[in-house]
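=== RUN LOG ===
request id: a7f3
mode: sequence -> structure
chains: 1
length: 258
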Amino acid sequence: MLRTWAGRAYLALLLCATLPPAQALEHWQQPAYILDSLIEIGLRNEYGRDAGHLRKWQQPIRIWIDHQVPEAALHRRLIEAHVAQLRSLTGHSIRFVDTPDAANLRVVLTRQQRLPGLWRKLAGETMPADALCLGRIWSNATGEIRRALVVIPVDSASQRGRLVSCIVEELTQVLGLPNDSDLVYPSVFNDRSTDQLLSGLDLVLLRLLYDPRLHAGMDRAQVRAAATPVLAELVRRGVVSSAAREVRKGELYRLLGQ
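=== RESULT ===
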């Protein structure tokens, strides 16, 4: 970890050497904005006390979908399309399993009426009053995510035109980006945003989070130090400049005609 003035100057020079002129960048493509967004979304929590360290999966993710409502085939297709993009962006092993005992990520599709009691039973806590759809991760002392839960009330989410955005946001958040923030835009992690699908900024954040040089358990300073050269590489390879275009190649974009 570089704590000295010389160390910080080196990191700044490393980024500047690979960046196009600042005026050519969108606000969300600015390196400082991206790093701030990673800290804001990755090290904080939407509800409850902030973790203060990075969380991510080390073990393969195994998803079981608990269908408690009709239209199971449609919902599974939407979930599979988004998971395919998450798998591609992170390079992490993610697949579906047929039984809850084989899963470490449970996705429950239910009705609004059942949501409070179901959340209390499965998550062991009272549902936040302002929540529509819910996700929760359980990590160990080193920041490794061991299991996760997503619960979506399909009826109320559909009535509000939020079913797809619930699927996208909650499944993405339980990968280790659990916070929502008005400071991060454009992003599915911003509740005031109209984005239902992953944005270019979200693509970059997922690439950073699952780069092997970023480790579970890193604190704020360690994340910045580790992410800075990774981000410089993403800039040099054109990942940041093409992110908004590349993210639209996801299957959900095609399914929804966007």
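=== NOTES ===
The two ends are 42 Å apart (CA to CA).
The domain at 56-178 is CATH 3.40.390.10 (Collagenase (Catalytic Domain)).
=== END ===
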